[in-house]
């Protein structure tokens, strides 16, 4: 599951490359998008802005249409200069939005649709999102309330639930739980408000710290190395994620790994620092 900082960076990079510029080319393999382009040509419009809402990227066009894309596990947006070779094969292309200066290519994107800007607040998926950890108006109290509405659910699953709070994926889930010293398989009911608040605050802190700038070609996962330890060495950037069988950086106990939930998500944890 992509992390919220990756989606935020992708949206910000797209915005810096495309916003305020007329569209000179639009192409898509999605028939529904192509039909809207035929009826209301995007090449007669400009791009007002590109924003992130949770794990969704929203590209706003001047005629009031919004292109919503969701990366799921394998989708990505790349930015290129006109004529620059693509880093992925054309068969993976799903959407092209080009201005005179940049070409934005959506590769392997599974979800894409146009929404009228006036209908955004009523969109089924968008309106159900929890508070966005990267939003300037993030509401920690609302995130806590939504957590406590799920007392029987495991905290590892609740952290991934975008309807509780938007932005956390597998990496930050494991890292946040480690920092707060919480076993991933504890039900929400077994955690105090202070411990839940620790998870919320730490998640927001990590995501904000890992939002970087770039206009390089970017993918949903690659493009930069996030860190939670504060260390720059590539092998020392994370506390527990991806370190199964290696010693905990704090207590030297071997890190464990477990698949759980309907989607068999991977969770890493230290059995000593976080309890059995």
Which terms summarize this structure?
four-stranded antiparallel β-sheet; 7 helices; alpha+beta; 276 residues
Structure commentary:
It contains seven helices and ten strands. A hairpin with a 4-residue loop joins β6 (93-98) and β7. It has helices at residues 4-18, 31-39, 124-127, 140-148, 155-160, 170-179, 193-209; strands at residues 25-28, 47-53, 56-61, 65-70, 76-80, 93-98, 103-107, 111-116, 256-260, 265-269. The strands form three sheets. Strands 1-6-7-5 form a four-stranded antiparallel β-sheet. A four-stranded antiparallel β-sheet has the order 2-3-4-8, covered by helices on one side. The chain has a two-stranded antiparallel ribbon with strand order 9-10. Mean pLDDT is 91; it is low at 213-223. By secondary structure, the chain is of the alpha+beta class.
Query: Helical region count?
Result: 7
The amount of beta strand, in percent, is 15-25%
Please describe the biggest sheet, giving its number of strands, its sense, and whether it closes into a barrel.
4 strands, antiparallel
What structural class do you assign from the helix and strand content?
alpha+beta
Helix and strand run: HEHEEEEEEEHHHHHEE
Proportion of residues in helical segments:
25-40%
Average residue pLDDT: 91
Count of strand segments: 10
Task: Provide a quick synopsis of the model.
The chain is of the alpha+beta class and 276 residues long.
Blueprint (SSEs and pairs):
Layout: H1 4-18, E1 25-28, H2 31-39, E2 47-53, E3 56-61, E4 65-70, E5 76-80, E6 93-98, E7 103-107, E8 111-116, H3 124-127, H4 140-148, H5 155-160, H6 170-179, H7 193-209, E9 256-260, E10 265-269
Antiparallel strand pairs: 1-6, 2-3, 3-4, 4-8, 5-7, 6-7, 9-10
Helix pairs in contact: 4-7, 6-7
């Amino acid at each position: 599951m992509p992390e919220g900082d990756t989606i935020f960076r992708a949206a910000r990079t797209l915005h810096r490359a495309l916003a305020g510029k007329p569209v000179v080319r639009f192409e898509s393999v999605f028939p529904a998008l192509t039909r809207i382009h035929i009826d209301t040509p995007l090449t007669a419009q400009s791009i007002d802005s590109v924003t992130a809402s949770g794990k969704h990227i929203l590209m706003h066009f001047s005629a009031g249409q919004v292109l919503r894309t969701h990366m799921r596990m394998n989708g990505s947006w790349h930015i290129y200069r006109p004529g620059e070779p693509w880093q992925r094969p054309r068969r993976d292309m799903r959407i092209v939005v080009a201005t005179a200066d940049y070409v934005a290519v959506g590769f392997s994107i599974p979800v894409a649709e146009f929404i009228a800007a006036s209908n955004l607040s009523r969109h089924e998926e968008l309106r159900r999102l929890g508070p966005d950890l990267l939003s300037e108006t993030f509401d920690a109290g609302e995130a806590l309330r939504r957590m406590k509405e799920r007392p029987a659910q495991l905290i590892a699953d609740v952290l991934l639930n975008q309807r509780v709070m938007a932005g956390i994926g597998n990496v930050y889930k494991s890292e946040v739980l480690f920092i707060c010293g919480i076993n991933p398989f504890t039900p929400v009911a077994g955690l105090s408000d202070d411990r839940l608040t620790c998870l919320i605050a730490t998640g927001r802190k990590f995501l904000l710290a890992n939002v970087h700038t770039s206009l390089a070609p970017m993918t949903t996962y690659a493009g930069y190395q996030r860190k939670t330890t504060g260390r720059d060495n590539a092998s020392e950037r994370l506390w527990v994620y991806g370190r199964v069988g290696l010693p905990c950086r704090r207590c030297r106990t071997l890190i464990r790994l477990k698949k759980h939930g309907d989607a068999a998500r991977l969770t890493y944890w230290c059995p000593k620092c976080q309890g059995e």
